[in-house]
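Example record

The entry below shows one chain as it appears in the dataset: sequence first, then structure tokens.
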Amino acid sequence: MFRRALLMVLVTSPAFAQAIFEPNAKLKVEAEKGVAGEGPAWDPQLGILTSGNGNIHRLTRAGDAVLFRQGAGTNGLLFDREGRLIACEPEKRRVTRTDAKGQLSVLTDSFGGKKYNQPNDVTVDSQGRIYFSDPRYGPRDGMEQKNEKGETIEGVYRIDTDGKVARVLGREVERANGVLVSADDKYLYVADNNNDLGGARKLYRFDLKDGEVSAKAPLLLHDWGTGRGPDGMKQDEKGNLYVAGGLNKPNPPSEPAANVKGGIYVFDPEGKLLTFLAVPTDEVTNCAFGGDDFKTLYITGGGVLYSIRTANAGRVLWTGKK
């Protein structure tokens, strides 16, 4: 069930040169545990949508709980510039789009005649091209995306406006998770989050040109070392990155120590850590901007939906205006 509550914010700042959160901002519980495992996505009329317990849940503008789509099996959610809901559906191994009338269409469910691993997160560039990550967490059987050597691929794909699909990153990353295209379409940010023992927990910035990714010499923005790495991310109007990641309790054997705390890590576009917002429930998976002024950051962590007020408006594709 949903309830409203306030939690004190723990914000640390190695070099707090600019305001990130509103003065005296507090972390607010918007929904109790279970309904907000992933997502979230903001619609000015619908409110905030989240993925949780195999369904898509909706928190209305009035704060009421509504089941939006039962049995959806979704992870990352995003409204495009026309107000259509783009959803990664790892259970069905596909990416879908649902229009304002509720009509669902499958954008892609395979590449090269092979099923995807588990589409996870999604982003859209200024031309309407969709990029999504395709990792596999949990059991590794049934993975069909492989290179010519038979090695598994957990990369990033692009869906063009005509429906054609291209793989833009393959084994250049170990296990792509969160993805984000910059406002000017020059960069693709990728959270390489391999939770196997010794795996990558890194945030990269790849050069992007006309929808093509240059895999040569990507900029490493941050390395979480042996702690839980980066998950979903969003960007504000100044280009700052809000990245979900970390753990508050050990998760052996792959993450034996909680040496990287769970919360939202805020970086400038070059990877400088601006501040950290602690979130008490593991795992902190994603975030999204919303509210009438787009200065409310919604956060999913451990199935709980949180919110906090920010100093800068977020980059939001769907503003409710066509």
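Notes for this example: The longest strand covers residues 212-223. Confidence is low (pLDDT under 50) at residues 1-16.
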